[in-house]
Amino acid sequence: VAKVGNQLAGSQAAEGGPSGGGMAGSPLTGQLLSNIPISVPHSVVATLGNAIYDWEVGRRTKETNEKVTTQVDDIFDRLKEAASAHPTYGAAAKEIEWRLATLREDMEQAKAFPGGGIAVYEGVFPVAKVEGALAALLGHEMAHVLARHELKRLTGDVAVAASNVASAVALGTSPDKIDRQAITA
User: Fold this and answer.
1) Which residues fall within 8 angstroms of residue 165, CB to CB, at 6 or more apart?
2) For residue 166, what are the contacts with CB-CB under 8 A and spacing of at least 6?
3) Burial 11-49 (b: 16+ CB within 10 A, else e)
4) Per residue, what are the HEC states of the chain?
5) How many CB atoms lie under 10 A from the CB of residue 163?
6) What is the model's pLDDT at position 46?
7) Are 110 and 124 in contact (CB under 8 A)?
8) Gap between the Cα atoms of 143 and 140, Å rounded
């Protein structure tokens, strides 16, 4: 990364651009490095996702209405079976340790967590009034887990942030001048 940053800095200086610190946040750096694959084992992402799921569920109140939880659990079980039988995602679906929490929170959403955790918030029930709508919502979240969307977003963000910070350091930019959002990522 430092080598790329130095090369880019040299080409910028030759073109009359900034010669120091100008790379942090550069779209060019992000374009170059956002396509570099970062190999993160699925087990690492699943462990992180499960920890975040546990934190999210642990700080919320779980739904206690048995009629509601039974209906949501039944739909979830049928979707897990369907996912396991899918020709493309079946093998992955069988390996995932699916978990579901129905939470008393007035948010109109559900969330997927890497590793197989799904949280459904009570606020979706007035919107998803029929079983099919709830199944579509849960299936959508399960598809995020199966397609590993969070991993793709996470690795892209980390690659861009790392390239921005590394380039700034390589160019001798003082830490107080480096974009805080890049450092945070």
Assistant:
1) 24, 178, 182, 183
2) 1, 2, 5
3) ebeeeeeeeeebbbbbeebbebbeeeeeeeeeeebbebb
4) CHHHHHHHHHHHHHCCCCCCCCCCCCHHHHHHHCCCCCCCCHHHHHHHHHHHHHHHHHCCCECCCHHHHHHHHHHHHHHHHHHHHCCCCHHHHHHCCCEEEEECCCCCCEEEECCCEEEEEHHHCCCCCCHHHHHHHHHHHHHHHHHCHHHHHHHHHHHHHHHHHHHHHHCCCCHHHCCHHHHHC
5) 27
6) 87
7) yes
8) 5
pLDDT of residue 22: 38
- Which residues in the chain show pLDDT less than 50? 1-34
Residue type, 97: E
Residue found under tokens 């397609």: 147
Tokens 């890497």 map to which residue? 114
- Residue 13: per-residue pLDDT: 41
Q: Residue type for 7, please?
A: Q
Q: Which among 92, 82, 117 has a CA at the least distance from the CA of 102?
A: 117
Quick one: which of 100, 101, 110, 115 has its CA closest to 145?
Answer: 115
Is-contact 109 118, C-beta < 8 A? no
* Token code pair at residue 178: 């480096």
